[in-house]
Amino acid sequence: MDLGIRGRRALVLGSSQGLGLACARALSREGVKVFLNGRDEAKLRKTVAEVMSENPASDVNFIAADMTAETGRDAILKACPDVDILVTNNAGPPPGALENWDEAALLGAMGANFIPAALLIRAYIPGMRARGFGRIVNITSAMVKTPHYMMGLSTSARAALTALSKAISGEVVADNVTINNLLPERIDTPRQEFMIRRRMEKEGIDWDEARRRTELSIKAGRLGRPEEFGDACAYLCSAQASYISGQNLQLDGGTYEGLV
Q: What digits encode the pLDDT tens for the residues 55-83?
C-alpha cells in the first residue's frame, strides 16, 4: 500500500535507537524525509548511516539536541522549523516506588515525558493546520491503560500527554491534523533488555529464564518486533489515516484485557 506520504517531512524524537528508530525507519521506507533526534551526535551519525545503507534512496538527517531543555527545543525548531509528521518519544524514568517519588522525581518525569512533547506539539500544529496536513504520534505506554505500581512515574507523565493530546485532537482534525498514541508493551528493544536484566537481579535467574518469563507475560507468547511497531506508526501517519484521531493503539500482543 502506498501511504501517500512520500516527500513529507518528519521529526522523530528520541530516535537514535529503540521504538523511535523503528518509526523513523518505517517512515523512511515510505519516502519521507526524516530527521532523527537524540543527545549523542556520534550515535546519531552512526544510526543515520545505518538507515541509509538499508535504503540508499532515503533522505535521513539528524538533530543532536536535548529535548528536555529549552535550548535543545530551540535547536530542534531552528533546524526543523516545519514538519508534516511529528513522532514524540523519550525514555521513561527508572522503576520506583512511592518512597522514591519526591518532588524532584515527579518534576523530572513530567520534564521528560510530558512537557517536551507538549511544547513541540504546540510549536508545530499551527503550520500543520495552515498547510492542511499533519500527523502527530506519541509513543506512550500500555501502562497508560493498565498502570503498574513500580512504573507509576512514567505512567503518570504519559497519561498527562494522552489527556492533552485528546483535548487538542478534536480542535485540529477538521484541518486534516491528527493526533494519536501508540501504547507499546514488551517490544524487543534496548529498554526491554534493561528490564530483562533487572528481572535477572530481582528474581535471581539467568538471562534465558528472565526472557522466557517476560515473553510468557504476553498473550502472544513473544516480544513484539520493532518493525511491527514502526509500521503501525507509519500507517497512523498516512494519508489513509485521516479519519483516525484522538485514539490509543495498543501494540501488546493481545495482552490488554479491557474493552476500551
A: 888 999 999 999 999 999 999 999 999 99
Q: Is 110 helix (H, G, I), strand (E, B) or coil?
A: helix
Bridge partner list, 11:
35, 86
Residues 238-243: what's their mean pLDDT?
98
What's the confidence (pLDDT) of residue 57? 86
Alpha helices in 17-151, H assignment, sequence order? 18-29, 41-54, 70-79, 103-113, 115-131
Radius of gyration of the chain (CA): 18
Burial class of residue 199 (count of CB atoms within 10 Å of its CB; 0-12, 13-18, 19+) = middle
- pTM summary value: 0.96
Residue in this structure with the C-alpha cell 528481572, named with its chain if needed: 199
| Bridge partners, residue 85, by sequence | 10, 135
Query: What is the pairing mode between strands 33-38 and 60-64?
Result: parallel
Domain ranges (residues) in the chain: 9-186+225-251, 188-223
CATH architecture for segment(s) 9-186+225-251? 3-Layer(aba) Sandwich (3.40)
